[in-house]
Design brief:
The protein has 288 residues and is an alpha+beta fold. It is built from eight helices and 15 strands. The structure holds 4'-deoxy-4'-aminopyridoxal-5'-phosphate.
Length: 288
Amino acid sequence: MLEKDNQKVYVNGEFYSKNEASISVFDRGFLFSDSVYEVSAVIEGKLVDWKEHFARLIRSLTHLGIVNNFQEEDFYQIQKKLIKENELKEGLCYVQVTRGVAERDFNFTKKSLLPTVVVFTQEKKILNNPASKVGIKIITVPDDRWRRRDIKTTQLLAQSLAKTHAVQKGVDDSLLVQGGFINEGSSSNAFIIKYGRIITPNLSSDILGGITRSSVIKFCQINNIKIEEQKIKINHLMNAQEVFLTSSTGFVLPVIEIDGRLVGNGLVGGMVKEIQRIYLEQIKAKLS
Ligand code: PMP
């Protein structure tokens, strides 16, 4: 859904109406996907896990050597202003930082560039997303992305194609697999539950270190629920009793079917429901 025309968008120090916000065609974010981003959920008009998102944004910028002129508080105030002006109660806040504008050239070392910063909001049903109650259906597809998936860049074509492919096949999303192991969803991290053990692929350059993933691990530990981080073979996924995906705007989404086969009995499982409950309880206590 396109947001209402009167929505405000932040670009490089100014707030514009949605139709007037623009960037240069020579922006390296546009020409090379030379750019990183963060998406934070907004519920009750407040940001979820902003501090953690900012830390990951800095990590991504540092890995790519993009200059950062912003403090955590600067981004926080811009987002708070947009949430208020756009009257956003539930949805997301998107922050993107590109290396900046330059004559098109693969080599960017010639001059120091001023990064382009864009922030906007989007309405989205998060708390009452029907998928979190009834679960989603997914298919497995080869992971065609570049090798540094731990850096949150805007090179999202492979993920976008994987998601679109899933929808064209009549399901909700794709799970990216590589060499007989599962990596992650097109825009989410994956967890399986088998014989009461909860397992998620360990952090590596194969996957993005999701903020929701780490919150779920932390909140489960607080509640004495152990989660193991290790590689997961596709056949373990296919035999799991419960499967779920985590992301900032989906939170904890149960998976009920994979490649046409039911997960467990095809109904949302009890452990996933418990993790959903714990996750919501914990994040509601630390909205900002
Ligand atoms: N993996 C990928 C590839 C993603 O795009 C996302 C969401 N951006 C995630 C995992 C989940 O990360 P987070 O929980 O920080 O939204």
